[in-house]
Amino acid sequence: MNLYNNIFPSTEEFLLKASEIIKNGGLVAFPTETVYGLGANGFNPIAVAKIFSVKNRPSFNPLILHIDSVSSLELLTTIHSEKVLKLVDKFWPGPITLVLPKTVLVPEIVTAGNSTVAIRIPNNEIATKLIKLSGVPIAAPSANSFGMLSPTTAVHVANQLQNKIDFILDGGKCSVGLESTIVEFTNDNFFLLRDGGISSEEIEEFLCEKLKRKVLENNPNSPGQLKSHYAPIKAIFFIDEVDISNFNKEKTAIICFSDDKKYSEFTFRKILSTKADFTEAAANLFFFLHELESENVDFILAEKIPEIGLGKAIMDRLTKAVNHYR
Ligand code: AMP
Ligand code: MG
What average pLDDT does this structure show over 78-95? Predict the structure, then answer.
C-alpha cells in the first residue's frame, strides 16, 4: 500500500469531496497558514468526538472553531463588542484566535465544557473554501497525535496519523508554521492565553492597550499553557543548559537562530533564519524538527531565541519541547 494514498491535491473536485466528508460526520486534515488541522463539523458532537479519539487528545482540551466569515460569529458567540469586531477586522483572516462566550449552538465537547469558545478565520484559501463548501464551522486542532510535533506539511500528517484518517488535503508547507495566538475577551478586557503567529506587541500596538496575562500553569482548561507540549521524538535540550562537549558531533543536531558559522563541527545543523528573520524562523521551526525526526541523530540542542515579536512564540514551543526531557 502506498503510504500516502490518503493525501489529495486541493483541487475543486477534492475540496468538494472533503466537504462531503465533513457534512457526513467524517474527518478531513487540511492546511491552514499556522499548522495542518484535523477537522470535523463543529456542530456535530459525534464527529468532533472522533478528533479526540484519533489524536488521543484529552477531552479537557478545547478545540478552535474555524469559520470563513465574520458574520458566522453571530451563531457562535453571545457577545457583540465593537472592540472585538475591530480586532478581528484588522487581523482576520490570520493566526489569531478569539476566545468568547459561546452560544447554545456550540456543543460542549468543542469547548471541553467551558462557557467560552475559541474561534478564528484562517488565512488560507484552501481552508476557507473547505469551510464555505461544508457550510458549518470546522472544529480543528493540529493534525497530530497529542503532545507531539505539529504538522506543517501533508506528509507530516500522513506520517503521524498513518491509517487513522482517510482524507488529507495537500496545501504545501504552512506559511506561518506556528499555532495561532490566543486572546480571550472577558469583562471588556483582552487576555493573552498563548503566544503564536501574531506577536503580542503587534496586537497591543493596534489596541493601544496591554494584553492582560492569565498565569495558569498546567491549567487543564487551557492546555495551550501546559508546561510540556509540542515534543519531538528525539530528546531536545537548550545548548546553554548542557555541557556541549558531552555530545557526539555526528549524532547530535544543532538548531541555531541565525549565525551559520557557529557549531560547524556538528554534522547536522539547522539555521532557522540566516537573515535573523523571526517570521522565517517560525515557519522553519516545526519543519526542521520533523526533518530531524527522520535523521540519524540521537539528540537535538537548540539555541535560545531572542524573545522579541514572534521570538516569544518560538521560545514558548521550544521550551515546551525541552520541558518534556528536563
Ligand atoms: P490547538 O490545540 O492549537 O488547536 O489550540 C487549541 C487551544 O486553544 C487549546 O489547547 C486551548 O489552549 C485554547 N482554547 C480553546 N478553546 C478555549 C476556551 N474555550 N478557553 C480557553 N482556551 C481555549
Ligand atoms: Mg496542537
Answer: 97
In this structure, the answer to whether residues 190 and 251 fall within a common structural domain is no
| Total of domains in the chain | 2
Per-residue pLDDT tens over the stretch 19-75:
999 999 999 999 999 999 999 999 999 999 999 999 998 888 899 999 999 999 999
Name which of 37, 319, 286, 277 is nearest 178 in CA terms: 286
Task: Give pLDDT, residue 215.
Answer: 64
- The H-assigned helical ranges of the chain are 12-23, 45-55, 73-76, 82-91, 108-111, 125-134, 154-161, 200-207, 278-293, 311-323
- Is residue 182's pLDDT more than 70? yes
Residue 249's domain comprises 235-323
The residue whose C-alpha atom lies closest to atom 6 belonging to ligand 1 is: 63
Nearest ligand to the C-alpha atom of residue 151: 2
Whose CA is closest to atom 4 on ligand 1? 141
Q: Ligand 1: which atom is nearest the Cα of residue 35? A: 3
Domain end: 213, 243, 273, which one?
213
Pocket perturbation via mutation, ligand 1, pick of 222, 226, 228, 229 by most ligand atoms within 8 A of CB: 222
Is 117 near ligand 1, meaning CB less than 6 Å away? yes
